[in-house]
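=== Given protein ===
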Amino acid sequence: MFERLSRSVGKRILNFTRDSGRMTMLWIETLKHLKDASPKEIIRQMALLGADSVPIVMITILCTGMVFSVQTAKEFVRFGAGNNVGGIVAIAMARELVPVLTGVVVAGRIGAAIAAELGTMKVTEQIDALRVMAANPVQFLVVPRFIALVLMMPLLVVIGNLIGDIGGWIVSHFYAGISTFSYKQSIRELAELYDIFGGMIKSSFFGGIIAIVGCYKGLNAPNGAEGVGLATTASVVLSIILIFITNYFLSILIFV
């Protein structure tokens, strides 16, 4: 039994090391071909991967801002610090909640879609057809999606910050009785543009992670419909894990 466990653990470690190396090579090759990407395809991917994600991001962040305000507004008022609620909500949303939750939502929606699309192309031998025609799959498939997500994620974060602050205001004003002036003034006094820019920088990294992981899992999907499903699931899970890990280190580098 111990031998079987050792083999299982060793196999997982080897698979993790192999996948990490291959994803790193895919990322490097993607960077090499950034200048060769088609502007038309990039714009199309920006619309598909970014603009179409706005509704679900808005709903998620609006509810998050409202919940966060529910948990803080009453307590702050009870301790005589109600005038600081707006600033606290804005800082928390801009630095952590909006970038991370937007990354998780986009990983679930877009990362899965990328893995499923490229996985289907691989299973139906469309990827092999590109190679036969001397076309680089990374240049035509990976690079436009990578650029689109890196550019669109900060825009989604800006929209999310606005919606999250509005959600926090709704609850703090109608639930805790904090005036609109106090809420807005607190944001002006406590929050800084650097908080928003820091969150936007984080989101660009998250977008790159989602694109690379989704493309890698799709391009290496096992054969058959079941393989596409496994690749899609693995893409979402790995993207979310890497987003949380990366968020920790970026928070230290940017805000500490």
In short: DSSP finds nine helices and no strands in the chain. The CA atoms of residues 46 and 148 lie 5 Å apart. The two ends are 46 Å apart (CA to CA).
